[in-house]
């Protein structure tokens, strides 16, 4: 049943230590994490987790650009638009907009799309808030997506997409092949476009002559 729950029960603890613990747990025991750590209506910790991942990813992109400008590091095969070319003040404002507006809006719109895709196949599905949480916590590997390595970016975005499909199967009580089918488009939006996994695949394909 898809519904919003005003007063969440269970779910994740709050605070910096809880964020670190969630990051470790989702990478080490994802199935258990999705089974026990996702609760109806408990979106806030998940959204904070997603914002933290995006913060690290964007700050690392900014750092890569600044170090490259000083000749201390290469940007690798990527151009680094986003906040990398901004002055520090403008970069802070842009990062604030990304964390407060862009990330939550993208997650909620994509979760709404996922809910529509689940309607025909998951009669015992979780609510929209559970989908939001699965999406947010599946971003855990993308902490490293800002590094100037196509191989690393492909690895972490594929890992994140895999976590998302696993979480979709566990939380919405559907078989894994079904989760892979109905979750493919949302996973592509978040990890292929949002974290630029498709760009990294294109770079690797070009390097290998495809």
UniProtKB/TrEMBL annotation:
The chain crosses the membrane at residues 90-119, 154-171, 178-195. Keywords: Membrane, Transmembrane, Transmembrane helix. Signal peptide: none annotated. The keyword Zinc does not apply. GO terms for cellular component: membrane. Residues 25-191 form the Yip1 domain. The keyword Membrane applies. It is found in: Membrane. It is a multi-pass membrane protein. It holds the Pfam family Yip1. This is Yip1 domain-containing protein. The lineage of its organism: Archaea, Methanobacteriati, Methanobacteriota, Stenosarchaea group, Halobacteria.
